[in-house]
Every structure is written in structure tokens, then in C-alpha cells.
């Protein structure tokens, strides 16, 4: 693909808002009752057979699902939801046990976080041990051993030059912190006019405000906020292969707007929720060179790519590049508790600390939570033994074997695999309820989105379960 003429315009964010909300439900403990109609009378049962996934049963499960429909707002959807969620009772290994007794092999690692599977003995033990000492203590003026140990280990394993760690609550917040670091540091360095960000199309960086502003401005999820969010600079999507023209256009765009740009932010090698696209690692070196030449900070969002998912420990390792700021999350605790970390160089930290604010203007209530940090340290210990480095290439091989035959199937536009990531891209929007039900019928949990049916399985998935996952994807493709 030729990037010629694709000089980024300052585009606003894009994509669709959630669907319309619903009215308040009647007594949620009565499964036969539903949201009142416009005249105040009871509506038809919203949990009737047409909206309930097969086999979810009655009794306690029905009561819980009625409460869920009445009160619980699920991600990226209206209230009440368009379809009923599957009720999970427990999880162990790579299996989710539903309330009706069915078991599903988890092909999603709970949105890419549970890399060691569920109920891992080492992680359970770390959580229980820390809970017996203290579950939380504030981080202002106090500190704790798990947070200290985690920060030290992250500095040791991340690319060279990242020396300081800011612990926070979630991936989106980690990106907010990274942006705040870049803006504060530029201001402290005497460049207050550098208030904008640059990135490339096809990315996703979270659902809070600054992260939304650097998500894809056309195919992303945030068109609702056009005119409200900061307007950033976007290059075209990075090609899968090396393209000299694209590299030149990317460099030229950043150089032309250098006096306005505080930082460039990208997901290295794999763009996650923006479209599950893979790009050539050499573009990361291009970004490193042009940002260094113009005093622009380089931020790598490794929230989805970190901790072995792409076949290297970090996406940055594919290019041998060190950013100025790095965001980590998702798999940081092995999927046990929410935790993120934003790392930066000594230069960034020194500039912020010497600036007019006297420090970074951020401080989450649950910063450095001992429970989350203790589990994260244990998860890193499991990764240190190297098992992931042996298993991820085997998963990659199994995904290629299982998914490549779908390349010629009706409606399939592309099949791509990297590390423990397998993607089937359709030529149309996926019918989510039908695709999900088809995978569940095969004993597999998948969560397709847009035109993508994909998997990011736990690293402990064996060959038999991996084959089941690819069979589930095939069923979802056929149902779409």
C-alpha cells in the first residue's frame, strides 16, 4: 500500500457511540417481570427464551441474570444489554465453568490478561499470603515491599533506559499518565507549545479522554467525542511489510509538526483493539530516530503486547528499540487484579521533577496496591522460568495450522498469526450473537468484534485445547 498523499491531517476521533439506554427495570428478583412499558405497565419478560443463551437455566441463575439485566452495565453496550451474557460460576486452568455446568475453553485470556490461566497455584498463594499481611495501604508518604519489588523487576526486564515506575489502576489510566509525563516534561524543558500527540491510524489506547484522542479517528470507537477531545496528528496505518515511501511520509509528518508535538504514541508491532493488525518492526526504529532528532518523546503502549504475547517479551524487542515512556497493563498481574505501570527514562523524570509543578501531577487512591503488586511479582516469576518462550512459538504453530485452512472460506478477507495471537478478518461485520453461540457450541469462549474473529489464548493452553479453539473460530466464521 502506498502512503503517498496520506500526509496526516489533524483528524478527530471516530466511531460509533453506545446504543440507546433503557428504562429502569421492575422488581429484579421476579424473573417474569421486565422494564415497565411507556404507560407504566409491565413489559414482556426481557429474560425470555429469545434473549437467553441456550442452557442458562432457571432458579438462582435466572435471579442473577435478572439482577444483571436490571442493574449491571456491560462494556460497549446499551443499558439494558442487547443480549444476555453467559453466567460464569468458576474458572480453572484454561476453562470457564458456566452456571449450567458447561465448560468453555477460554480463547480470550479474559481480554488478553490471564496468560497463566485461572487458579494458578503460585498466583493464588501470592494473593493469599499478601492478604494475610495487608490488602492495601496508601502510597502517599508510605510504601510497601510488593510495590518496591515490582518496580525494581520492571526496570530490570524492560528496554534499557527506563528507570522509573509510576504504578496506577488500569491501562487507560497508564496511558493518561504517559501523556501527562510527556506534556509536563516538554513544558519543563521550555517547550510549552508542544501540546499535541502524533500516532498512526488503526490504533487503540483506551477509553479515557487523552487515550481516546489517539485511537483511530475513522475506524475506532469514539466518534461521539469528536469536537470534545484534543485533535491529534495521524499518519496512515503502518503496513505489514516494509515500505520506504510510508517510512518517509511518517518521518516527514513528524518533522513538519515537531514544534507542536510533545510525544508520539504507538502500539509496537501489533495494533490490538483498533483492528488486530501487525506491522513491520522497522517502523519503530524510524519513529525512534525522528523523535530523538526533534526532541519528541516516544511512548510505547505495550498494554496488549507486553509479557510474551507477540513471541518476544515486549513488542519493542522485535526492533531492539527503547522508548522514553512505556505503558504496561493487562497481563501484568496474570489477569488476577487490575494494575498498570508507566515507566520513563531518567531524562523525563528529571525534567518533570525540576519543573514548575515540582513533580508528576497524578496520584491514584489505589496506587501501589500491595495485593495487585504481590500477584504481579509472582506472575513475573512464572515468566522468568522461560516456559512462555517455549510455549508461545508452539501456540503460533498450532494457530497457523488451525486457521490457515480458513483463508479460502466464504466471507474471509484475511488470516494472520503472530505469537499467541490468531486473527480471522471477515469481509463484513461479524454477527456477534450468532458467532459467539457457534463457538460456545464447540466448547470455546470467543469475543469477536467488528469484522474480526480472533483468539489470544492463555500461554498454558495445550495442543488439544488449542485445536478446540481453532475449531471454535471455524464455527464462528461459518455462522457469520
What key phrases describe this protein's structure?
single chain; alpha/beta; disordered N terminus
Structure in words:
The structure is a single chain. The strands form 4 sheets. The protein has a 7-stranded mixed sheet with strand order 4-12-11-10-7-5-6, sandwiched between helices. A 4-stranded mixed sheet has the order 1-2-3-15. The chain is an alpha/beta fold and 480 residues long. The chain has 13 helices and 16 strands.
Our count of helices gives: 13
Compressed to H and E, one letter per element, the order equals HEEEHHHEHEHEHEEEHEEEHHHEEHEEH
Task: Report the mean per-residue pLDDT as an integer.
Answer: 89
Strand coverage percent:
15-25%
| Ends distance | 28 Å
Number of strands: 16
Could you tell me the radius of gyration in angstroms? 23 Å
Main pleated-sheet profile: 7 strands, mixed
Briefly note the structural class of the backbone.
alpha/beta
Taking strands numbered 1, 2, ... along the chain, how are they ordered across the largest sheet?
4-12-11-10-7-5-6
Low-confidence stretches: 1-51
Shape: globular
What is the percent of helical residues?
A: 25-40%
| Oligomeric form | single chain
Amino acid at each position: 500500500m502506498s502512503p503517498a498523499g496520506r500526509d496526516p491531517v489533524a483528524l478527530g476521533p471516530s466511531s460509533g457511540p453506545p446504543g440507546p439506554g433503557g428504562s429502569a427495570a421492575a422488581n429484579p428478583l421476579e424473573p417474569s417481570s421486565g422494564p415497565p412499558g411507556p404507560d407504566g405497565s409491565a413489559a414482556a419478560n426481557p429474560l425470555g427464551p429469545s434473549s437467553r443463551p441456550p442452557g442458562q437455566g432457571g432458579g438462582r441463575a435466572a435471579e442473577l441474570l435478572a439482577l444483571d439485566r436490571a442493574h449491571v452495565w456491560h462494556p460497549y453496550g446499551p443499558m439494558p444489554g442487547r443480549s444476555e451474557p453467559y453466567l460464569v460460576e468458576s474458572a480453572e486452568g484454561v476453562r470457564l465453568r458456566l452456571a449450567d455446568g458447561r465448560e468453555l475453553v477460554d480463547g480470550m485470556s479474559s481480554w488478553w490478561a490471564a496468560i497463566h490461566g485461572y487458579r494458578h497455584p503460585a498466583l493464588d498463594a501470592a494473593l493469599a499470603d499478601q492478604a494475610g499481611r495487608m490488602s492495601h495501604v496508601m502510597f502517599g508518604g508510605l510504601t510497601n515491599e510488593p510495590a518496591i519489588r515490582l518496580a525494581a523487576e520492571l526496570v530490570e526486564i524492560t528496554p534499557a533506559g527506563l528507570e522509573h515506575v509510576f504504578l496506577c489502576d488500569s491501562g487507560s489510566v497508564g496511558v493518561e499518565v504517559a501523556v501527562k509525563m510527556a506534556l509536563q516534561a516538554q513544558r519543563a524543558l521550555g517547550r510549552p507549545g508542544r501540546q499535541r500527540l502524533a500516532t498512526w491510524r488503526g490504533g487503540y489506547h483506551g477509553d479515557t479522554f487523552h487515550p481516546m484522542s489517539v485511537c483511530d479517528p475513522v475506524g475506532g470507537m469514539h466518534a461521539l467525542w469528536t469536537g470534545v477531545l484534543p485533535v491529534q496528528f495521524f499518519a496512515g496505518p503502518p503496513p505489514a511489510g516494509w515500505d520506504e515511501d510510508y517510512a518517509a511520509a511518517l518521518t516527514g509528518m513528524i518533522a513538519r509538526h515537531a514544534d507542536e508535538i510533545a510525544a508520539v504514541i504507538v502500539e509496537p508491532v501489533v495494533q490490538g483493539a483498533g483492528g488486530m493488525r501487525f506491522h513491520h518492526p522497522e517502523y519503530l526504529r524510524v519513529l525512534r530516530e525522528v523523535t530523538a532528532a526533534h526532541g519528541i518523546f516516544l511512548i510505547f503502549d505495550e498494554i496488549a503486547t507486553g509479557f510474551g504475547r507477540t513471541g518476544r517479551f515486549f513488542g519493542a524487542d522485535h526492533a531492539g528499540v527503547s522508548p522514553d515512556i512505556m505503558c504496561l497493563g493487562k497481563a501484568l498481574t496474570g489477569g488476577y487484579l487490575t494494575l498498570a505501570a508507566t515507566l520513563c527514562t531518567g531524562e523525563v523524570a528529571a525534567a518533570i521533577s525540576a519543573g514548575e509543578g515540582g513533580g508528576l501531577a497524578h496520584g491514584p487512591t489505589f496506587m501501589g496496591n500491595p495485593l495487585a503488586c504481590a500477584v504481579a511479582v509472582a506472575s513475573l516469576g512464572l515468566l522468568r522460568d522461560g516456559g512462555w518462550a517455549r510455549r508461545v512459538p508452539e501456540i503460533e504453530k498450532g494457530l497457523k495450522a488451525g486457521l490457515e485452512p480458513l483463508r479460502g472460506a466464504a466471507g474471509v478477507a484475511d488470516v494472520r498469526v503472530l505469537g499467541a495471537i490468531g486473527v480471522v478478518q471477515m469481509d463484513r461485520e461479524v454477527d456477534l450473537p450468532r458467532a459467539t453461540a457457534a463457538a460456545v457450541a464447540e466448547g470455546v469462549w470467543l469475543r469477536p468484534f467488528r469484522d474480526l474473529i480472533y483468539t489470544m489464548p492463555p500461554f498454558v493452553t495445550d495442543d488439544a485445547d488449542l485445536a478446540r479453539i481453532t475449531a471454535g473460530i471455524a464455527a464462528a466464521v461459518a455462522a457469520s
